[in-house]
Amino acid sequence: MTILSDITTLDAVAGLAATLPQADSAAAEAARARQDSLTKPPGALGRLEELAIHMAGWQRSERPRIETAQALVFAGNHGICAQGVNPFPQAVTAQMVANFEAGGAAINQLCRASGADLSVHALDLDRPTRDFSQAVAMDPEEVLAAMKTGAEAVDPAAQVLVLGEMGIGNSTVAAALACATFGGAPADWVGRGTGSDAAGRARKAEVVADGVARHQAARGLTLLAAFGGREQAAICGAVLEARARAIPVLLDGYICTAAVAPLFDADPALLAHCLAGHASAEPGHRRLLDAMGLRPVLSLDMALGEGSGAALALGVLRAALECHNGMATFAEAGVSGG
Asked: What end-to-end distance do the CA atoms of the chain give, in Å?
């Protein structure tokens, strides 16, 4: 059973926030006190201290650990590609999924380096969503089905979840989701994606403007139906299942962050367990992170997707916990100043 097993409407998803687990404030405060007692000046490890405290609250332990880290990559295809928004054919989505499964992509190497168990889930690649500039991309039933696929993919034994995606055309979907959620000019949310030139970016902005105008009444989870792909919906399902199991989440770049914007719009509290793995080179990503109050762990000018930035951030998260758990306190080391 997952958190979404008995959910039958998108409206019901938004109401989950009040029933989901919260971080344990006592464990977080105990972790903060431990940080202040370690052999270093208070705050000297900067963000590493915050990451350790975040993990402590969700693991309900003063000394959180990562024994099992899971990475999930969801893949889908998009009807919006009919509008000429991508320089590559949709066949590339399936080709890249095969590359993931064969171990040949960047995410495979990064998961190996950071110690994450990777699995890839392709969602009906032979059946793209509808063109959101002409109609809703998915029916509510399709959204829920994809969300449930995402929820079912979560390993209950994981202590942290890394999320990523693949789908030709999904940078246009991300721009539409971000623009529809937070407003602003469509051009402000559009970037290069997989290599669009200036004319391609202008075309993407036009398409996003058409879609946002058509679906201006959409809010919350209905944004997924209006614009989303199956991989975006699956990411939302995985985020909710992780929350139900108090598993912290590392979100990847622009597309992954935009995928959960409908959850934020429904209730920002639904993302309290989420960390932004990195700030990508896509111009809309920092704007989106600021709007959602998410501070990235890394900023390396990456724009690959696949979960690559989140997988790298997992290494930083592991380092934060090594320091938190392995350093001596002033009392243990016999050092004055504690």
From this structure: 47
Identify the bridge partners of residue 70 per DSSP, sorted by sequence position.
117, 161
C-alpha 228/C-alpha 78 separation (Å) is 8
- Rounded CA separation 25/327 (Å): 23
- Rounded CA-CA distance 219/223 in Å is 5
Q: How far apart are CA 113 and CA 189, in angstroms?
A: 32
Catalytic residues: 306
Look at strands 160-166 and 249-251 and give their pairing: parallel
pLDDT at 248 over 90: yes
User: DSSP for 141-171?
Assistant: HHHHHHHHHHHHTS-TT-SEEEEEEE-TTHH
Residue 338 clears pLDDT 70, i.e. is over it: no
Question: Following CA atoms 182, 293, 288, 217 in sequence, which dihedral angle do they give, to the nearest 10 degrees?
Answer: -20
Q: What angle do CA 210, 281, 86 make, to 5 degrees?
A: 40
On whether the CB atoms of residues 275 and 250 are closer than 8 A, the answer is: yes
Per-domain residue ranges for the chain? 68-315
pLDDT, one tens digit per residue, over 279-303 is 999 999 999 999 999 999 999 999 9
Token pair for residue 85?
A: 């928004």
| pTM of the predicted structure, to 2 decimals | 0.97
CATH number for 68-315: choose from 3.40.50.10210, 3.40.1160.10, 1.25.40.10, 3.40.50.150: 3.40.50.10210
What 3-state DSSP class applies to 117? strand
Q: Are 119 and 158 in contact (CB under 8 A)?
A: no
Band (pLDDT 50/70/90 cuts) for residue 124 is: very high
Quick check: 337 pLDDT over 70?
no
Q: Residue 227 and residue 235: Cα distance in Å, rounded?
A: 14
Do residues 149 and 238 make contact, with C-beta atoms less than 8 angstroms apart?
A: no
Sheet order of strands, 160-166 included: 117-122, 69-75, 160-166, 249-251, 274-278, 296-298
Q: Report the distance separating Cα 289 and Cα 257, nearest Å.
A: 8
- Helices 47-59 & 308-326 angle (0-180, nearest 10): 90
Question: How far is residue 195 CA from its own chain's centroid?
Answer: 22
| Helices 170-182 and 230-244, packing angle to 10 deg | 60
